[in-house]
Amino acid sequence: MTQNSNIFLYLGKQVKDEYGRVIGKVASFAVNPNGKVNSAYIEQSDGRFIKHQIENLKVEESEVIFLSEKKMEITSLCDQIPLLWRKDQALKELANKKKISSEVYEDLHTNFEGALNQLKGEAQTLIEKIDKEIARHAQEIKELNYALVHLEIEHEIGQIDEQSYQTAFSTIQECLKRANIEKSDLEAMRNKLSNILLGEMPPQTEPETKEKPVEESTTQETPTPPSPNLPEPPVVVYVKEMGDSNI
């Protein structure tokens, strides 16, 4: 949420997550002595208060949206890990070019390596948490599908009137939609983080440099398809055409 003079206008506003679920409402803000708002107190539906960093909230079409902390953490890790990897590689290049002493290299390399290992550990822990969330959503989707089948059966045998059926059907479908979207998001985040840990992210520049020769070779090969039908060089082809015109 951006810092502005109207931030307190959001007091009492309903707070939803990124998938439309209502998680509570804005009860208060924590303000530093210098006037900067650094967090917000959210009253949940059960009456409990939870303090969230102001960066986790954004205003979208007059609605207050709570941003996923997992997404923000993953984005941060996906930025920091490749950056540290590139810095360590650049440091190694400088050492190979004798631009820095071996003592300076070892000292900085140890620092980069330690920080990188720490971030990788945090990423692995986060992946394990995401796996549990994915499994939970998979179970939720399964249960919702069973609920939908039972609803259809009861409606088919006349136990549920049409209006109640339509209301329940819409509710289950909406829940299924949210659960599937969130599960897909979690799987995408997990894959992104796993690729970072596998070291696939930093070397992505290599295939780009290799693609250029491939493009050149394909352009060079474009005149070759007619060559089996025309064994003679292009000059001879023009001579034959002239011969044809004389006939």
Give structural notes:
This protein has 247 residues and is of the alpha+beta class. Helices cover 60% and strands 14% of the residues. It contains five helices and six strands, in the order E-E-E-E-E-E-H-H-H-H-H. The longest helix is centred in the middle third of the chain and has 55 residues. The radius of gyration is 31 Å and the shape is flat.
What's the quick description here?
This protein is about 60% helix and about 15% strand. The chain has about 250 residues and is α+β, with helices and mostly antiparallel strands.
Descriptive keywords:
247 residues; alpha+beta; SH3 type barrels; six-stranded mixed beta sheet; flat
List the helices and strands and how they pair.
Elements (H helix, E strand, L loop, with lengths): L13 E4 L4 E10 L5 E7 L5 E5 L3 E4 L2 E4 L2 H28 L5 H55 L5 H36 L7 H17 L12 H13 L1
Parallel strand pairs: 1-6
Antiparallel strand pairs: 1-2, 2-3, 3-4, 5-6
Helix pairs in contact: 1-2, 1-3, 2-3
Q: Low-confidence spans: pLDDT under 50, at least 5 residues?
A: 201-247
Count of separate structural domains: 2
- Strand order, largest beta sheet: 4-3-2-1-6-5
C-alpha termini separation: 83 Å
Which percent range fits the helix content? 55-70%
- CA gyration radius, whole angstroms: 31 Å
Cα shape? flat
Count of discrete alpha- or pi-helical segments spanning 4 or more residues: 5
Number of beta-strand segments: 6
Name the beta content range: 5-15%
Characterize the main sheet: 6 strands, mixed
Structural class: alpha+beta
What sequence of helices (H) and strands (E) makes up the elements? Answer: EEEEEEHHHHH
Mean pLDDT, rounded to whole units?
Answer: 81
